[in-house]
Design a protein that fits this description.
single chain, mainly beta, 14 strands
């Protein structure tokens, strides 16, 4: 349903029949200012294919394969944000073991290979939640890791430099809890 900018959504129409993904996602993957849809389709127990269907503002086009050999399983968190600062949204994959892979968007595909895709070896531990956001106004999305659930727990932020994540920053000095 489309929002009318107030408290209601207008209409409920079919924009695409058959995305064929197991983990859905939405973001501006081609950088045109309009969000598209996509997702990850499982090819086997450890790897899958990233698929995207671009929006023309009235419907989604035919879905296409944007990257193969993508590491994910049922425990992988999918983060959509512009980690590279180039305009289109990229896809971040946080594995259950804590590794972060990033699939940079080139506007027509994800420019990805498994050898160069790991941006951080351990961005979280079991039970922790990661969410993207631009926390330092540098045009690159960063990642906040909620250590103890987020209500009154600790938060660590990993700042990106547009190509590889820096080490987690301790924000305890800014009132975000005990970071030890």
């Amino acid at each position: 349903a489309r929002s009318n900018g107030s408290s209601a959504f207008v209409g409920h129409a079919l924009w695409l029949d058959g995305l064929d993904v197991h983990v859905p996602m939405a973001g501006d993957f081609d950088g045109d200012g309009v969000d598209d849809i996509g997702g990850l389709r499982s090819d086997n127990a450890l790897f899958g294919t990233a698929r995207v269907a671009l929006s023309d503002r009235t419907e989604f086009g035919a879905p296409g394969d944007w990257a193969g050999g993508v590491p994910f399983d049922a425990n992988t968190d999918v983060l959509v944000a512009d980690f590279t600062g180039t305009g289109p949204d990229d896809v971040g994959l946080v594995a259950a073991g804590g590794a972060l892979w990033v699939l940079p968007s080139g506007g027509t595909s994800f420019e990805w290979d498994i050898q160069n895709g790991v941006w951080q070896r351990r961005i979280r531990s079991s039970g922790q939640v990661c969410r993207p956001g631009n926390f330092n106004r540098d045009l690159n999305a960063d990642i906040a890791t909620f250590v103890s659930g987020g209500n009154d727990g600790d938060v660590k932020v990993s700042l990106t430099g547009g190509h590889a994540s820096r080490l987690a920053v301790d924000l305890s000095q800014f009132g975000f809890g005990n970071m030890t």
